[in-house]
Amino acid sequence: MLEGKAKVEDTDMPLKMQMKALNIASQSLDLFDVSDCQPIAAHIKKEFDERYGSGWQCVVGSNFGCFFTHSKGTFIYFHLGTLNFLIFKGATL
């Protein structure tokens, strides 16, 4: 586990949800090969959908760009080890 090694770059999530995001991400790195980002992202998305309702999105990798709209209080972007994590719930129109 990489506990204590995460660096949150930007977020509007409540602190308790932020901590859950970091914990789930750390656990996923124990479960999956760090070079295979898709199953890591899928695992995090599944956990968030189960805990906080459907509609969550997760992007994991070392180099990506993005542009999105999210629901207030559901966004976090952080680094853990060599990977970047973006988790958010899509905005409803």
Automatic annotation (TrEMBL):
Its main location: cytoplasm. The keyword Cytoplasm applies. It is found in: Cytoplasm, Cytoskeleton. GO terms for biological process: microtubule-based process. GO terms for cellular component: cytoplasmic dynein complex; microtubule. Pfam families: Dynein_light. It comes from the Eukaryota. The keyword Cytoplasm applies. Keywords: Cytoplasm, Cytoskeleton, Dynein, Microtubule, Motor protein. Gene3D superfamilies: Protein Inhibitor Of Neuronal Nitric Oxide Synthase. GO terms for molecular function: dynein intermediate chain binding. PANTHER family: DYNEIN LIGHT CHAIN (PTHR11886). Belongs to the dynein light chain family. This is Dynein light chain. It comes from Brassica napus (Rape). The gene is BnaC05g37270D.
